[in-house]
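Chain and backbone:
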Amino acid sequence: MRLTKISASMFDIRAKNYYDLLQVPKHANEAQIKRAYHKLALKYHPDKNPGNEEAKKKFQEISSAYEVLSDTEKRQIYDQYGEEGVKQHNAGGGRGGAGGFNDIFSQFFGGSGFRVSFGGDEEEEEKTPKGDDVVVELQATLEDIYMGQTFKMYRDKNVIKPAPGKRKCNCKNKMVTRQIGPGMYQQFTQQVCEDCPNVKYEREGSPVTVDVEKGMKDGQEITFFEEGEPIIDGEPGDLKFVIKTIPHEKFVRQGDDLHVTVRIPLVDALVGFEKKIPHLDGHMVSIGTKGVTKPGEVRQFAKEGMPVYESDKKGALFVKFEIDFPETLTEAQKGVIRTTFGSATS
């Protein structure tokens, strides 16, 4: 195996993590990576999503990720130097892409025994038993979702380990024909099994890193393929983290917009004011005005809302103003008001 020496200082941090794109942990083995690509490629294939540019882009991204992570040499380079490291490796004579994203898809499915059709049947494939999914509620603050946050967790789960002895496995029902007399035959179903090494479940713990990306929505799932409960002679279930947003004391999220209520004194409402409020990441937003502010008035501040998920855009911030009126006025104060605004109508 040939490795290309690359200077890590030459590259910026990659925009999208290949492991995140395939929704597998960094320690995923070859089989996990292959199965994850299989599921995602079928889901986002352009033939299944005609006219959907987002699906087309996603298909290209996961195909690029699979091309790298399924190649031992490229994966080592990627783990150390990132996406740009792989590009330099390819430019320097390393094994590059075979000819496009559809070629990667065709190579994957062409010799695997699958027949893929997007006209009605999703796929024809022998069903493999799957373990239970594990769903975990991930409580995140609005600040976490606004800025993005990484959560370190510890996962305790069953792991399949070797055990003494043999067991029956891969059992299938087979149609058997038996002659019971001259010209008479009987057909019946018989279970046929193989002998496999015995296995057992053991509990093991391992750390899990969960990245909450900017702009993710409440209820959105972050999935780790095959990190759920295992099942003997089948595929493990998935580990799913479901985002649950903790209510904020000031800001309320509606879609990609933020809403906040600010109280100002009557004098500021009448003569104008200068005021700044702290945002979720600490930067200050100027909400002052030189004009008159009416009770319940709402003003919009563009690009001060939540980040739009997987985009460089932002929603808007809507500020609702509530006016603090004085409880009482002195006669002198009433006189000034009458003088300024005229006598009250009768």
